[in-house]
Amino acid sequence: MGYSLGVDTGGTYTDAVVIDAEARAVLGSAKALTTRDDLAIGIGGAVDAALAAAGVGPQDIALVSLSTTLATNALVEGQGGRVALVAIGFTGADLARAGLAEAMGGDPVIVLAGGHGASGEEAAPLDEALLASELQRLGSSVAGFAVTARFATRNPAHEMRARDIIAAATGLPVTCGHELSARLNGPKRALTAVLNARLIGKIATLVAACERHLAARGIAVPLMVVRGDGALISAQMVRERPIETILSGPAASLVGAHWLTGEQTALVSDIGGTTTDVALLKDGLPEIDAEGALVGGHRTMVEAVAMRTTGLGGDSELHLQDEGLAGGMRLGPRRVLPLCLIAIDHPDMVYDALDRALARDQPGDHDGRFVIRMAGAGGGLPARDAALLERIAGALPLSGLLKSRLEIPALDRLVARGLVMLAGVTPTDAAHVLGLSGAWDASAARKGIALMNRKRAGNGLHRAPDAEGFARLVIDQVTAQTRDTLLEAAFAEDPGFRGSDPRGLAHHPLTRAGLAHHGGIIEMTARIGVPVIGLGASAPTYYPAVGAALGARMILPAHAGVANAIGAVVGQISQRATGTVTSDGAGRYTAHLASGPALYPSAEAALAALETALRLDAHDAAIRAGAAHVTLTRAQEIKGAEVEGREVFVEATLTVTASGRPRMAH
After folding, report:
1. Phi/psi at 422 (nearest 5 deg)?
2. How deeply is 153 buried, as exposed, middle or buried, from its count of CB atoms within 10 A (0-12, 13-18, 19+)?
3. Helix (H, G, I), strand (E, B) or coil at 347
4. Handedness of CA 139, 36, 570, 250 (dihedral sign)
5. Block mean pLDDT (10 aa), the chain, length 666
6. What is the bridge-based pairing of β-strands 266-271 and 532-535?
């Protein structure tokens, strides 16, 4: 009997589960802290404990699959390696679109002559000399490159040539836009390539860590990884295209939610340490976002589940707000380490800083906040950032690090690069104060919560009478923000409100009145009309109150804390190959193939040639992804126009999908 091992690496925890897929039974599961400096330690702890809980030996494992939120978290938190964008045939105005300029964040952009026209013809020769000189100028200040060329989906020749030049000159990873999407929209394709390039190092490290532990345990089976649409791909493929793992963890949670509950239609809300991910399960399948995955404010060209990801989790940073006399608070979007957790590793430093802050008459701006140095090189940093990083050794109080307010932006940039992490009060600390969780150091959490409560609101009063009262306010804020996230998702998915602003509807006074069952001259009621499946280790802590606030049937299934890991091994492989046929006149039909454009005398001939190529590409991709038996399906869309009373062919898009279950070791 061969069993399946699922692993999910999140920002806080790494989960592992052993299942018998045929019997639909969970044999054993376990959690371990995600160890960012060496991911193999956390993966190993979870895997070994899950095997022991299941009573299963390494030789009994026939399939291993991995899902992760690391890529999603990195984009939500604005993290990633420094990369260079090589833009071929684009203007400055082009590059300002699709949020590309903001996403670059000061990373270098190399603009070259070249690119192609809409029919695949060369618009201008590629400026190879300028590319070579720019590569020499950049030196080792970047970790990778993204290459995008004008109309590369119609002819990828210049992207491929630039990739070869960069690889030969630098030896660094190169991402080409045409490899990630066959759709038009150069700036959006460039954005996707940039994000992919930034994630390569992070995801390669994760895959290597998982493979290293599996080899050490004698589990000699291929490793699969969950893609953002819930399908599986091989580890080798994900090394080249890590962008496809954005929303991997959330996609796996949807698959896992259906497997655990059998619900066909439901809102699924998965709360982790960094994010809350909400999506609709419809007819047992996750809805796919036709516009491309939206993560961290970036609209990509990656096919993924239609997921609303917000920076709200158990480890979300707490912000006190001064608006109004009573003040308020907000959680996220950045993740920080909970005080109750860092006190385990650095007890003397944490307690000394907290006690000294509590002994002072007036609270300081950075009381109860700490900074921890992470592994990673600081190449390409501005002088102020590099000098600040040099002063951070291990862990230390933030108040003892910052010498002026000018260093706060520098610290934020170091956090964004993943070179340091902040620690402070989080909902996890509040849960420890209230006795809802006892995993770590509740005493440190209480001191941090007490410090936050000393910061008075606009009316000059404390926000709560004691630490317990303040902790309850934090938990209530989790409930409120989760309620709003679910409402926005519900309005977005309800066809009756298509075209309306989901956020505006979720926050509308009439919606609030309906949820509160207003009973005056007008009586109103509102509720979520489908079940809500709550997932995540902390779901039982937060979600009963969320269900009550929404009038929804809240389902908290057994094993909800490892739903991602379950979803990682019960999905199937799916690979798509997409191409287009265009026409610039009667008898001239161009099939845009991976090898370049090819001219045919009829639309039928061009489509037949394109389908033959796509079937081969999709089948080969599914085999490379690890499929055992492949099934091919096709979908075709033809666009025409009426000219002088007759229909004229304009363009056709053909998609071939290859799918199958992964190969199991025997």
Report:
1. -95, 155
2. buried
3. helix
4. negative
5. 86 89 88 85 93 93 88 69 89 76 82 89 92 90 89 90 93 84 80 79 84 91 85 82 76 89 94 88 81 67 77 92 76 93 94 94 89 77 88 89 88 87 96 92 96 84 92 96 94 92 95 94 95 92 94 94 88 84 87 86 94 93 84 89 76 89 72
6. parallel
Name the token pair of 176: 């080409």
Cis ω before 333 (30° cut-off from 0)? yes
Which residue's entry shows tokens 């963890």? 249
Helix (H) or strand (E) holding 662: none
Strand, coil or helix: 496: helix
Show the CA angle centred on residue 585, arms to residues 584 and 586, nearest 5°: 145
Strands 25-33 and 13-20: antiparallel
CB count in 10 Å sphere of residue 51: 23
Q: Give start and end residues of each alpha helix (H) in 516-590.
A: 539-550, 563-570
- How many Cβ atoms sit within 10 Å of the Cβ of residue 408? 14
d(CA 144, CA 199): 10
- With 0-12 / 13-18 / 19 or more C-beta atoms within 10 angstroms meaning exposed / middle / buried, residue 661 is middle
- CA 145, CA 169: separation in Å to the nearest integer? 12
Distances, alpha carbon 486 to alpha carbons 259, 269, 469, 510, in Å: 21, 8, 26, 17
Compute the distance between CA of residue 19 and CA of residue 569 in angstroms, rounded to an integer. Answer: 8
pLDDT of residue 216: 92
pTM beyond 0.85: the answer is: no
Selection from 111, 59, 124, 70 nearest residue 666 by Cα: 59
Q: What are the Cα distances from residue 269, in Å, to 250, 276, 473, 534?
A: 9, 7, 22, 5
Is the distance from CB of 342 to CB of 350 less than 8 angstroms?
yes
Residue 49 is which amino acid?
Answer: A
Q: Which residue has the tokens 């009997």?
A: 1
d(Cα 87, Cα 147) in Å, to the nearest integer?
6
Of 525, 524, 481, the residue nearest 503 (C-alpha): 481
Per the listing, tokens 């390494």 go with 58
Tokens of 409: 């932006």
**What residues contact 208, with CB distance under 8 A and at least 6 apart?**
none
Edge-to-edge strand order for the sheet containing 395-397?
A: 337-338, 420-424, 370-373, 395-397
For residue 584, with 0-12 CB atoms within 10 Å meaning exposed, 13-18 middle and 19 or more buried, which class applies?
A: exposed
Distance of CA 416 to the CA centre of its chain: 15
Mind giving me the DSSP string for 392-455? --SEEEGGGT--STTHHHHHHHHHHTTSEEEEE--HHHHHHHTTS--SS-HHHHHHHHHHHHTS
60, two tokens: 């009994």
Closest CA to 659 of 627, 635, 636, 637: 627
Strands 266-271 and 276-282: antiparallel
Residues facing residue 337 across a β-bridge: 423
Distance (Å, whole) CA 510 – CA 435: 36
Three-class DSSP labels, 269-283: EEECCCCEEEEEEEC
Q: How far is CA 286 from CA 243, 252, 571, in A?
A: 19, 10, 12
- Three-state secondary structure of 508-532: CHHHHHHHCCCECCCECCCCCCCCE
